[in-house]
Amino acid sequence: MMIIPQDVHNALWNWAEQLGRGADELIRPSYLYKPRLFIDGNEWCALYGTDLQAGVSGFGKSPDAAYKDFDKAWRKEKTDA
C-alpha cells in the first residue's frame, strides 16, 4: 500500500473541493438562464422575462446578492408551480 504524504493529501482534497464548488456554480439558475442585471432604485435586479410580474427576479445590494436572490426565487417558482 502506498502512503501519501499529508501535504499532498491536503492539496488533493482542496483541489477536489474547489472542483465541486465550481461545478455548483455552473448549475445555478442565474448562470444557466443569464437574467438581465440592472439597477432598480437603490438595489440591483436580476430579471428573467419581460417584466417583474411575468418574470422571475431577484434583488440585492450587489450583483452577486441579486443573483443569489434570483436563484432562490427561480427554485421557489419552479417547485411551487
Write up this protein.
This protein has helices spanning 6-26, 29-33, 63-80, and strands spanning 36-40, 43-48, 56-60. By secondary structure, the chain is an alpha+beta fold. It has a single domain, classed as 2-Layer Sandwich (Double Stranded RNA Binding Domain). The chain has a three-stranded antiparallel sheet. Strand 2 and strand 3 (56-60) form a beta hairpin. The radius of gyration is 18 Å and the shape is elongated.
Strand line-up in the sheet with most strands: 1-2-3
Number of helices: 3
Strand content: 15-25%
List unreliable stretches of 5+ residues.
none
Helix-strand topology string: HHEEEH
Main sheet summary: 3 strands, antiparallel
Please provide a brief summary of the model.
With 81 residues, the protein is an alpha+beta fold.
List keywords for this structure.
single chain; 81 residues; alpha+beta; Double Stranded RNA Binding Domain; three-stranded antiparallel beta sheet; 3 helices
What's the helix and strand layout?
Elements: H1 6-26, H2 29-33, E1 36-40, E2 43-48, E3 56-60, H3 63-80
Antiparallel strand pairs: 1-2, 2-3
